[in-house]
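Narrative of activities, Objective 1.

The group set out to show that a structural description can be obtained from nothing but a protein's sequence at a throughput compatible with the screening campaign. Below is one input-output pair from the validation batch, recorded exactly as produced.
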Amino acid sequence: MKKLIRYSLLAFLFTFSGYIAKTQDIHYSQMYNTPLYINPAFTGNHECDFRAAVNYRQQAASFTTPFETYTAWGDTRFYPGFLNRRGWFGLGAHLYYDNAGEGDLTKVQGMLFSAYSQGFNSDNSLYGSLGVGVGYTNRTVNQAKFIFGDNWDPDELQFDPSKYPTAESLPSSSIFYVDFNVGLSVHHMVNANWMYEVGGSMSHITKPKESFYGENNRVGRKFIGHVTVQHILSDNFLIKPEIYFIAHEGVTETLLGANIVYGATDLKLHGGLWYRWGRDIIPVLGIEYNKFALLFSYDVNVSKQHVASNYQGGFELSLVKKFCGTHTNKRDPCKFLEF
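Output recorded for this entry:
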């Protein structure tokens, strides 16, 4: 009976945390601001010499202990002479920390990324990228925060771990494993006002073992497909519609929407509206100055969970800084919209 209760509680923990996140991994609403996590092929694919960012997300605070995710990442690129400006390499890294639910189920991962991009036409306005990532992951859980069957106080008719400590114990509360990701993307700058990007990635290629009980529980492969379009509407307005599709462990998520950017000299204002299919409506607001962008978004929960969440979802912050050299655009072999 005790074993049944133990497994039931842990199954609920993992199932519930997966349901909230819609996949068994961390997830963001501002996926365009976590490019290395979405697709390793994005490593080094930007209009500047270097970029760095931090992201924070909190969700499910209205009806459980908040789920929190922190990410820091950065990437750069370089052009070896032997490639004759027809190809280039990107290098990057990310570090994230995720804490889910009552049992302090945490995930800490550091990952290194590398990508190679190759131009397909004379001016490299059409190019493809292949990226790979390798990382080291640590997962921990705090058993002291669980409630087991033998914590039950029959006199008070409630669970009281201080009076009735559990005899259950996890063989391990901390596990480690190596993880691998791979991704492809195609970037096409059609003209001075239009560009698009399509791609896909696969995470957990080797299906690493993940179990606090030493069992053969494997992390399932995760697949992400994405399409982005950018169009300069006028001297002051740019629109960026995007769609992301994620499939992981039999659970799917579709996120689609668009951001509009208003630009005046070095100051730009961001606004957008997104929809996580069947679950959230997500407004976005932000400001950018001198390649320094701060964006805020909030998930308005409109799924059947709204009975418990009272339409409250999660908020997200991202801070991205791009570092551009004085003559970056002149020496870059790749093409991006200038806005």
